[in-house]
């Protein structure tokens, strides 16, 4: 049977443009969020549309006050374009944070179950399903159970789970590889001890991440309040400067 080789599909000029104007890590964020090319192009198109619409906010001031205010359209465009990326980055960081916490809990639970019983890995995973809240991580674990059932002696399901559930980090790959070796090739208890040590260290990092996340939210709150108070001041100063400028121009 001949091996089928996938032929890469060449991107259109417009598709290359969307990649060109994207931030360096934008497409990677889209991929790691579980989406692909279609969603990336859709996001970029919606982002461009909203940025162009934001420039209309400069039309009325330019028409009623001064044509020079039409330059505000550039500021509005850049702000809207960048703001869409900032929001996406914030949502992605939140998703990564939730994945990390779920992964730490998974590691701790799976080690505890393996230490307390000699049941199969499938049975252990099913017990874990009952302990997890509904969501993406639980769906990924359910998918892992199906894949292991269909391919019990292959490591690929374990690696795929490390990719989708923990972002494919080296630590996640090492943990799942050790888990595969323990369940398929050996029952050496030292592997469980090693997994337990990995899970313990990961949980400590998770606690530290939670603390930093909460502290960062608290620290940024006064800053946001200050910025809100600063906005009217900027508007007042800009209006005063424009009034002085127009008066001087009329006196010429």
Question: What does this protein structure show overall?
Answer:
There is one protein chain. This protein has 252 residues and is an all-alpha fold. Among the domains are: 47 residues; 111 residues. The chain is built from ten helices and no strands. The longest helix is centred in the last third of the chain and has 63 residues.
Mean pLDDT: 79
Stretches with pLDDT under 50, minimum 5 residues: 1-7
Largest sheet: none
Structure annotation, total helices: 10
Using the CA coordinates, give the radius of gyration. Answer: 27 Å
Intertermini distance: 88 Å
Order of helix and strand elements from N to C terminus: HHHHHHHHHH
- Helix percent reads over 70%
Number of strands: 0
Shape: elongated
**Structural class per helix/strand content?**
mainly alpha
Strand content: under 5%
Keywords: Membrane, Plasmid, Transmembrane, Transmembrane helix
Transmembrane segments: 51-79, 221-242
Give the helix/strand layout:
Elements (H helix, E strand, L loop, with lengths): L12 H8 L5 H7 L4 H18 L4 H6 L7 H45 L4 H11 L4 H15 L5 H11 L3 H15 L4 H63 L1
Helix pairs in contact: 3-5, 5-6, 5-10, 6-7, 7-8, 8-9, 9-10
